[in-house]
Amino acid sequence: MQHWSSIEAFVEVVRLGTFSAAARHLKVSTSHISRLVSQLENQLGVQLLYRTTRQIRLTDAGAIYVEHCRHLFDGLRDAEQAISELQSTPNGLLKLTSATTFGERFIAPLVNDFQCLHPQLDVHMHFTNRPVELIEEGFDIAIRMGVLKDSSLIARRLCDRREYIVGSQAYFRQAPRPHTLGELSQHRCLIGSRPNWLFEMNGQRREVRVEGCWTSNSGPALLDAARKGLGLAQLPDYYVAPYLASGELVAVLEPFQHHDTAVWAVYPRHRHLSPKIRQLVDYLVANIGSVLPSNTLV
């Protein structure tokens, strides 16, 4: 832009309130600033400032123009900061939360590896199965499972997550294998942290409320109960994959398996994402496949 220096002079005059203050800030003479602003007005064909011996005041055209010019300079500063941050290293405190079992088994080893690469980073990992309010509770990143709710947060997919309805060989010697969702009411269902099981039917998400005499908010406990023949359970692939492969557990109702689920790294929306968040999320995306069971999709 040919009159960029004139725009900068005009914006600084408005920001600082006088031609002399703008001249000092830009390290040029007051007469040079005055000349640049006059050139800008001539180029635009409008008066931007009312000038008196005591003060300057924006014209209507000047008020409109300076607002747009500020966005230009904000964008320039943003671009410079983005490039600077691209070259910077992660530092400070990074707080991450995740569902307990997945976090302990798969996320923590990767975060530990990441800290080995960046020892100047302080890490706080918090594992819980309760819903965490990311911003209100001061976390930088949350690892979330399944279908995400709409929100203003940014989400990056780490890997697929398939949920299976499973029962043991011993259980199916006592009960027939179900072939429709309606048949679940005839089975003992082991209930985890939610009473509704998620399925897909005719391309649509469907939830089925199940009942049983066994309930726990622990995934490992749920898996153990299923392996011991206490009933059917809905569990994600990273719990059941080895037992399905060995034949100890049997998957049923697979035609109704919901496919639109995944594991996500979720973080607040910022104009400038800090290096510690950006680089850790990139690291998780690149390396999650190395810690998951071989038949878990990434």
From TrEMBL:
Identify the residues that the record assigns to the HTH lysR-type domain, covering every copy.
Answer: 1-59
**InterPro entries this protein is in?**
LysR-type_TF_proteobact-type, LysR_HTH_N, LysR_subst-bd, WH-like_DNA-bd_sf, WH_DNA-bd_sf
Which key words are in the record? DNA-binding, Transcription, Transcription regulation
Entry GO MF terms: DNA-binding transcription factor activity; sequence-specific DNA binding
Question: Would you kindly state one Gene Ontology biological process term found in this protein's UniProt entry?
Answer: DNA-templated transcription
Q: Which Gene3D superfamilies match?
A: 3.40.190.290, Winged helix-like DNA-binding domain superfamily/Winged helix DNA-binding domain (1.10.10.10)
Output the superkingdom of the source species. Bacteria
- Please report which protein family the annotation says this sequence is part of: Belongs to the LysR transcriptional regulatory family.
Protein name per its UniProtKB record:
LysR family transcriptional regulator
Species per Swiss-Prot/TrEMBL record: Halovibrio variabilis
Q: What is the lineage of its organism?
A: Bacteria, Pseudomonadati, Pseudomonadota, Gammaproteobacteria, Oceanospirillales
